[in-house]
Amino acid sequence: MLRYIVPLAIFVVIGVSLFFGLGRNPNNVPSPLVGKPVPDFSLPDLEDPAATVSSTDLAGRVALVNVWGTWCVECRHEHAFLLELARAGVPILGLNVKDERVAANRWLAQLGNPYVSSGFDPEGKAAIDWGVTGAPETFLIGREGTILHKHISPLTPFVWQRDFIPLLREQCASADCPFLTAVGGR
Amino acid sequence: MIRLAALCFFCLWCNAGFAQESFDDPALDERYRSLIHEIRCPKCLNESIAESKAPVAADLRREVRRLIGEGASDDEIKTFLSSRYGDFVLYRPRLTPATWVLWGGPFIFLAIGGLVFWRILKKRGDQPMDEDLPA
User: Fold this and answer.
1) Per-residue pLDDT band at B16 (split at 50, 70, 90)
2) What is the pLDDT of residues A21-57, one digit of tens each?
3) Cα distance between residue B53 and residue A132, in whole Å
4) A131 in contact with chain B, both atoms CB, cutoff 8 A
5) Cα distance between residue A114 and residue A94, in whole Å
6) Which end of chain B is more exposed for a tag (fewer CB within 10 A), N or C?
7) pLDDT tens figures, A91-137
8) Residue bearing the bigger pLDDT, B131 or A44
9) Taking a contact as any Cβ pair under 8 Å apart, which residues of chain B between 61 and 120 contact chain A?
10) CA atoms within a 13 Å half-sphere pointing along the CA-CB vector of B92
């Protein structure tokens, strides 16, 4: 009897681990920053070099931090949805990485600007503190200034619904989160 | 043949690009080189940041150079990187509760293998071999 059970057990263990292991996206490296406070940063504003964009801009409110650059094709893909979120009242702080100021401002002028403001980080220094591996990446920041979630790859209505809405629901009473219901958050 | 030559030339050319990212002090340079081979690029799956051409790898190399220049120890540099990118970036992950299975797993499998081996030997030992059979 044992001679049948043991190989079967080994097969099941290997089968189950491969089934779950191979189905995972190897680019989705979990971030150690989730659950931690927002990393300190202070960057010149993309549109107004004299102004600064910093971690204090995130204090006390639920917001998104979106990593983008004009070199990033997927960011263009994601842009329309970001505009939709912004229209619904979601505050989005941009982190413009490894880009040129002129090109980035032209992008915002042409495609529309979904960002409250964008930090300009041409060398990707702040991006390293955020554990950014590329663009687009989107962080959900909670009211207490902690990172609640990190999404790698373009933000889509599907991802928003699946990953962000449940966390947002926990974060805020419906009264002060108008955007909860505005974008597909039935 | 021409293709091979072109490839060789290209490789040399790439290495020349990397060689510029170095220290004048040979000891620091040695440390830098061994460190960047121990750090895994978070974007490009199983390439070290020394080998990878992803932008983030170049940024991380720059950060490692900066930290070495500021006199940080290897351990401090690894902590700096893993606190941002996770244990994923260390080719030799530290021993933490999350990595116990990773480090201990091989020994557990060795023990299981040993146990199976011992049982088989014992079973065989119990059976008389041909020579032992009474004639």
Assistant:
1) very low
2) 888 877 777 899 999 999 999 999 999 999 999 999 9
3) 16
4) yes
5) 9
6) C
7) 999 999 999 999 999 999 999 999 999 999 999 999 999 999 988 99
8) A44
9) 62-63, 82-88
10) 8
Closest residue on chain A to B43 (Cα): A133
List chain B residues with CB under 8 Å of A29. 42, 85-86, 88
- N-term to C-term CA, chain A: 54
Cα–Cα distance, A32 to B86 (Å, whole number):
5
Q: Which residue, A177, A148, A185, is CA-closest to A65?
A: A148
C-alpha of A118 from chain center = 14
Helices (H) then strands (E): counts for chain A: 7, 7
Provide the residue type at A155 as one letter.
L
CA A162 to chain B, closest CA, distance in angstroms equals 24
Tokens of A11: 């097969």
Pick from B45, B63, B87: which is nearest to A128 by CB? B63
Question: Could you tell me the two tokens for A140?
Answer: 């959900």
Tokens of A56: 């204090």
Q: Which of A97, A128, A153 to mutate to test the interface with B (most CBs of B within 10 A)?
A: A128
Which amino acid, one-letter code, is at B107? F
